[in-house]
Predict the 3D structure of the following.
Amino acid sequence: MKTALVCGAGGFIGSHLARELKHRGWWVRGADRKRPEFSPTAADDFLLGDLRDRENCVRALTLPGGGAPDAVFQLAAEMGGMGFIHRAAAEIMHDSVLINANMCHEAAARGVGRYFFSSSVCVYHDMRPGDPQLDEDGAYPAAPDNDYGWEKLYSERMAFAHARASGMKVRIARFQNCYGPEGTWRGGREKAPAALSRKVAEAPDGGEVEIWGDGSAIRNFIYVDDLVDGILHLMDSDLDFKPANIGTEEYVTVRELLATIADVAGKRIVAKPVDGPVGVASRNFSTARIRSTGWAPRFTLRDGIARTYPWVAAQVAAAAAR
Ligand code: NAD
């Protein structure tokens, strides 16, 4: 049986990944500073601890039998939507880099065979609507739009440096915006699909929902099951020293995202532009590299929202009843 350490297994993508690894027959240890919020962890073993701390990284990497896991999936990070990224840059640059430096260094030192790092399309520069598609090499010359992207780019390079020095196989995915059930939906760290789902659930039929900016920013959203499948395809691949974008080809404006959510909710909703951190104007990335592994997304945005909105609406209803 193969063994995995999932760092960030108390979070959104990490908890889904732990569940899928279990489904595929792995023995899984989760590690996080918190347990999953919405359902019990699927991991066989769960280590609660601050992964900025080197000793906790060593504990997480030491399995009950004494050896290291076959694979490490490093998803622990200071993470949130555009509002959080803009107000917490120092926290992100400090805390996430400590987690990555300690985990990657200790994993290489312990002979871990394969190491996955969750990067982001925030490593790319801002784009304009209509700009030609960027492939992974387009991250250089580097000009990420925010410090979250700079931290990811630095940590990508750090992981590859350890791969060169130790022979550990490193796989890096640059995620587009991920959404799905059991993602953060309130509290300030939620991303656009969850935030807009919450606002639509709270709004009356015919009501207004606030959007940051004019809603023309172009984005791509990937359903969590597709993303997890992409991570596992990438981890099995021979893509050495080749980061891979994981997203769909379905690009929509924020207004179109809101319209999709309203349609799924069966409500007439009016977008109300307000000031807020909009982020980059546009996105357009190649997925040829991840598709070369045999991966393809299975969910359209509407399919994914049809699985996500009811979950967010149920959280809103439960919170209102408390
Ligand atoms: P999340 O916030 O739900 O999960 C991250 C987890 O890391 C949390 O459970 C948090 O408690 C944990 N963590 C943070 N600091 C820690 C520390 N010091 N010690 C131990 N645990 C700590 O976020 P997510 O959406 O599941 O994202 C997972 C990864 O994917 C992150 O690295 C994120 O940057 C990356 N990513 C996510 C998206 C997205 O759209 N969700 C997009 C691009 C990249």
Summary: The pocket of nicotinamide-adenine-dinucleotide is lined by residues 8, 10-14, 32-34, 50-52, 75-79, 95, 99, 118, 120, 175, 177-178, 184, 191 (CB under 6 Å). The CA atoms of residues 147 and 217 lie 20 Å apart. Residues 3-178+221-246 form a domain with the Rossmann fold fold (CATH 3.40.50.720). The longest helix spans residues 89-109.
